[in-house]
Amino acid sequence: MNQNVFDDPRITAVGLLVEAHAGLSARFAAQFEEHGLSPVEFEVLTRLARSPGNQLRMTDLAAQTSLSTSGVTRVVDRMERDGLLCRRACPSDRRSSYAVVTTAGLQRLDQTLPGHLRIIEQWFTGQLEPEELRAVLDGLRRVRDAVHPGATAGSTEPVPEEDARS
Amino acid sequence: MNQNVFDDPRITAVGLLVEAHAGLSARFAAQFEEHGLSPVEFEVLTRLARSPGNQLRMTDLAAQTSLSTSGVTRVVDRMERDGLLCRRACPSDRRSSYAVVTTAGLQRLDQTLPGHLRIIEQWFTGQLEPEELRAVLDGLRRVRDAVHPGATAGSTEPVPEEDARS
DNA sequence: CGAGGAATATTGCCATGGCTATAGTTGCTC
DNA sequence: GAGCAACTATAGCCATGGCAATATTCCTCG
């Protein structure tokens, strides 16, 4: 068996990306937990808080998170039970319902965000010189745009079908 | 509520990292599935295949993957049932047992790896100029070393305790 | 208008995996 | 050697979340 396949620079590159991500996620999760939030709940809270009216239809919330629509149903169940958000019927479409952040939810987010930003700075952005950071982010943006169809509003271009990198 | 918190460059930076990782993971998972593997199973297979004797104690396997020891027990259960690996009693310590990759497991990995490498190149490394890629990897290495204690054998230095909290 | 198909949220069923308790083993200390 | 703490793998119980089925509601086309 070809042992040195694992020394392939591509494997190494992915390993770095995965481990950097995993390490940061673990730090985030620990801090979220201090504020009684799971990573998914924090994600939901931020997505709602940055949406007009602090609300989003269940479907749209699912599209903006890592969850399926049924997953969103359940997270919203839990968070509604905890008073972080509530459901609101959509007046124009009786199939839809909104998830709306409550005041308590916004407060919780406010409590969590400063520490979150501190962690990012301490363990990610602050570890790099400004121009290094810019280089990393430029690279990640290119990867993201290639591999994550429809991630940003800006990239409406079709997903590149081949390895073409202009 | 402070809406423009979400325009904070730190939030943006993490968002890029997370989405690049998520996009790549999704592509990987799709290709693994073509070969009848889950992401965790692929991880286990590679960890074992790159270990001396194609084997690892359950505990060590857990330490090298994203799983707890009980998680490893179950993945190994499934993979043993599928014939990808088998358990072997440790002769020197009757508490321990090894997970050993079978020939079928190595074959499965051989079938999967070329496509995996192609995906990495097509959607990650190949999207960047060589010097861009090097810059990204250098940055990720720094982040990884900071945030992921004990990730590599090379970085024995203690985790920076530069702290600022509480 | 009415029928059929698409969209929306939810629920049932299931796989995955973490935490904790447990049983077996080892090694250290007295 | 006996006792005890640490280690190792596993099983029980539970939370999370995906997929598919389901019930509503909406929309389009005839």
TrEMBL record, chains A, B:
GO biological processes: response to stress
Gene3D superfamilies associated with the record: Winged helix-like DNA-binding domain superfamily/Winged helix DNA-binding domain
Sequence intervals crossing the membrane: none
GO molecular-function terms, A-Z: DNA-binding transcription factor activity
InterPro entries documented for this protein: HTH_MarR-typ (IPR000835), MarR/SlyA-like (IPR039422), WH-like_DNA-bd_sf (IPR036388), WH_DNA-bd_sf (IPR036390)
Start and end residues of each HTH marR-type domain: 10-145
PANTHER family the record matches: MARR FAMILY REGULATORY PROTEIN, TRANSCRIPTIONAL REGULATOR, MARR FAMILY
Identification of the protein by name: MarR family transcriptional regulator
Organism: Micromonospora carbonacea
